[in-house]
Specification:
600 residues; alpha+beta; Rossmann fold; Elongation Factor Tu (Ef-tu), domain 3; Alpha-Beta Plaits; 5 domains; 9-stranded antiparallel β-sheet; 6-stranded mixed β-sheet; 14 helices
Amino acid sequence: MSENYIRNFSIIAHIDHGKSTLADRMLEVTGTVEKRKMRDQMLDSMDLERERGITIKMQPARMIYSQNGQKYILNLIDTPGHIDFAYEVSRALTAVEGVILLVDSTQGVQAQTLATLTMARKTGCVIIPVVSKIDSPMARVSETVSELVDLLGVEEDDVFHVSGKTGEGVEELLGALIDIIPAPSSTYTGPGGRALIFDFSYSEHRGVTMFVRVTDGTLKVKDIVQLAAHTTRFTIADVGWFMPEQVASGELNSGEIGYVVSGVKEPGVAVVGDTLTSVESTLEALPGYQTPRPVVWASVYPESQEDFVQLKLALSRLQLTDAAFSYEEDGSSILGKGFRCGFLGMLHLEIITERLKREFDVAPILTTPTIEYEITTKNGSVESILSPSQFPEHGLITSIKEQWVKVMIIAPPDYLSPITQVLYEYEALVQSSDLFSDGRMSVVAEMPLRELMRGFFDRLKSVSSGFASLSYEFLEMRQADVVKLDVLVAEEVVPAFSRIVSRRRVEEESKAVVKKLYEKLPKQLFVVKIQARVDGRIVSSRTLSAKRKDVTGYLYGGDVTRKKKLLEKQKKGKERRAGHAKVNIPPDVFMKMVRSDENK
């Protein structure tokens, strides 16, 4: 089909604004999926996505829709809404000509809506404003329309009204997509073709399958192609469309969105944002490619060292489907051999951990997450530190730098006071505030990434009764006043519990971690000291009493001195054991220490 009859678009929205539900109705109205086969969140293929109600992996869908007797191809890319996956979303937006800006009429414009809108504008996408959930009794349609009018500078008649639940307004929106979004165009007439990779998947039999938007020319089965970022060459084994299941087509032409089966089974070959080009063509790589940069780091260890190979295999399989996830071998004197892993954010970390359990039956031990620090030592060397265990001794450090972020918070003005207090607690510097037409306020602040990852979003939701929304973007590295906090169990440092904390919160953090471990650690056969150490001094300490065992239970009758002798013998045995015994910390204790919900 000619490029003139193709429309490529994406739906951008804040989490839980009805993006996946609207996509379901579009698939139903266009007849792409039969009604008897329809299910909620049709494009969300992972059980984890359905349970959490969020989109984790991008999923394209090709729909055929007729208008005025002419058939059109509508290619939809359903993108994640969470800020952790902002880079993937930005690359998907370069694969389309237009976006539907979806805003929940019960909640209005949210912080993440503004962040994604900025990305769409930078890529030059045509923006179609849409108000969703108009059937809800809580809907504030007119107020939400006014917000979009002010935000985009459009007329009220330019804002569409839809209900993903009932299907109201969906056909009108599909017609508008054809009229408003421009058709893709290409002037290339040479051999071969070029395509942008915006996502990929992996299977044991077909290897890496790349999700692509063909920008120029044609890609066909048996074409020899190469990747720009990794200079890898392979022969295309299969190409096709997403209907939304994969359907072979033999070739993909300019303007089309589909898949390319590579047969490659090596990790790290396919990366979001890379360019796929035919060897016979003279086309260069598409601009804008960046290597995904991890922002959160944590070490992962198997429960038993016997499971090390299984864990390594599981991590390599995960990397085949998620190139933004990185890992390298690591080691600990306490936990043995493991891996140092990089994640895009805390949600990304939770998802990877959950997938290890579900898909590979691996229950890993996870260390406390941290960010990257830039440390200058007294001998003048500059080091990038990714874990507390790598921190030099406090007397060897000249300066420490850490990543800062700019955050935007949108919330009702009634919550301004508690939000301001939370920002102070998390070392944020308020830059500005603004008032929206519907009465809500936006607050812009700058804060250390370290503090943002310390459960800031959960705390923000708590003090705002769930009404606040958050988005953030990265700033430069700045000076940090932080120290390394070590946790000692039976006078031995446990690296998995070590963390980097703000100097002003040393006592609070020390007491909290010691108390939490005191409550979670099972009692031993001897007295155990739990201590927090900072800069060589003990800041907090608790003593876990020994497990009681009734050594006199079998006695009956006789003189009381018999019991006293046994108790005295038990006491000396515990003292002797405490001097050289090691504490065996169960894996679930490590997980409980890491999880933020356990900190409350």
